[in-house]
Task: structure prediction
Amino acid sequence: MLYRKTALRVAAPVAVLALALTACGGGDDKKDSADKPKAGANEPKAKPKPESGGELGTGESATGKVKEGDASVTYEITAQKVELGTEADTKKMVSDPKEAKGLVPAIAYVKYTHKSGAALTESPDANDGTTVWADGQRGTLVIGAAEDAPGCEDASSIEGWKKGQSHVLCETYLVPKDAKDLEIHWSEEDGEPFIWKFAAK
Result:
C-alpha cells in the first residue's frame, strides 16, 4: 500500500524521511402523560460510531479492511497516543541540521487487532494508513524511525499474525515544535480517515 507514501521527502542518514413518541390514552390521561418526562430524555446520547471515517474519542476503536498479500484482513484500530520528541532528536534523523529547525518528531502509537481474514504470511501493511497531523497540517513522514521506540513493535519482525492477536505499530512524523493540536489519522486505501485528537504536551 504505497498510496500514502507520497508525502514531502528530505534526505536522512538514520531513517528515510517521507515527507453513524407515540402518545396513547385520552382525556386527562393524555394530559398527565404529556406532563411526564419521556424516558431517557435527560440521559446523554451515545455518540454514533462512524461506519467509514469520522472523529473518534480517546480509547475508541475503528474497524477497517487492509489488503495483506492476496487476502483482505479486517482490523480493529485504536490510536493510543502521540509522543513528541525534541529538535535534538530531529537532528539525528536528518543529514542537514537546518532541516531540523523548528521541527520535532511526533510518534503515533496505534494498536491493531486482527478480527477476521487469513493469517498473514508476510510483514503487515496495516500501518500504511496512518498519518500524523498538527494544527490541521499533515506532518512529514519519517520512514523506519519508530521501530526502536519504547512500546513500538517492528512490523518486519511480525510473523504469522492471525485472528485474535494484537500488535502496536508506530509511525514517526516531523511537526512544528509549537503545535497545539495533534491528530492521528487512519484510513483504508482511498477511504475517508478515522481521526483521533490529542493535545500536545
Observations:
- The CA atoms of residues 87 and 101 lie 7 Å apart.
- Residues 28-35 form the longest helix (8 residues).
- The two ends are 32 Å apart (CA to CA).
